[in-house]
């Protein structure tokens, strides 16, 4: 048990150290969107994920600009290493990429009054992937932040069957729908999973504190009000984790 805990703590600290060199950027300008699209193209071509031609290097669609869609670039030492698009899906606003593949399952959630975060278009630079296998954690931290900010009921995972074990192990994701093939542009099988956010999030933060964030970081990432323009944002996981730990220690000392 102690050994397992030590391994988990070492892993978390390694991720914290990587986050110290990471910046997140909400992408809303044409120049940044083209850079994101090039990463998508490189990743999908390397992974044989979609039907792509050599003459179609840019992967941008109208959904990237939906009012409930948030496209992010993840920069490591000022280099774009990955990207993800997050949909805030509600019963009143049902624009979602996963819903195109699994419409019955997604509508069942929404008809029950639930709200969802749908992370899609996750892509990492294949030239960086082998050097930095932690990229999925750095990228999916944004999905965790979105579930917290919007206080949703489920976080979806539309994934390859081979990746299901990762999402079950890390995010305690439940099976929702069996793999489907021959669905539009994708040339891989995709299955649907979902995390019960309000139940799982506290345990996730305890086990993997690098997923934590301060409220002001979440606000800078997702607030689209006039006074909150898109920014390059530094992660606050270390502050959220060790800051709260110091407060707890101080409170315990005063109580004794």
Automatic annotation (TrEMBL):
<feature type="domain" description="N-acyl amino acid synthase FeeM catalytic core">
    <location>
        <begin position="36"/>
        <end position="194"/>
    </location>
</feature>
<dbReference type="InterPro" id="IPR016181">
    <property type="entry name" value="Acyl_CoA_acyltransferase"/>
</dbReference>
<dbReference type="Pfam" id="PF21926">
    <property type="entry name" value="FeeM"/>
</dbReference>
<dbReference type="InterPro" id="IPR054597">
    <property type="entry name" value="FeeM_cat"/>
</dbReference>
<protein>
    <recommendedName>
        <fullName>N-acyl amino acid synthase FeeM catalytic core domain-containing protein</fullName>
    </recommendedName>
</protein>
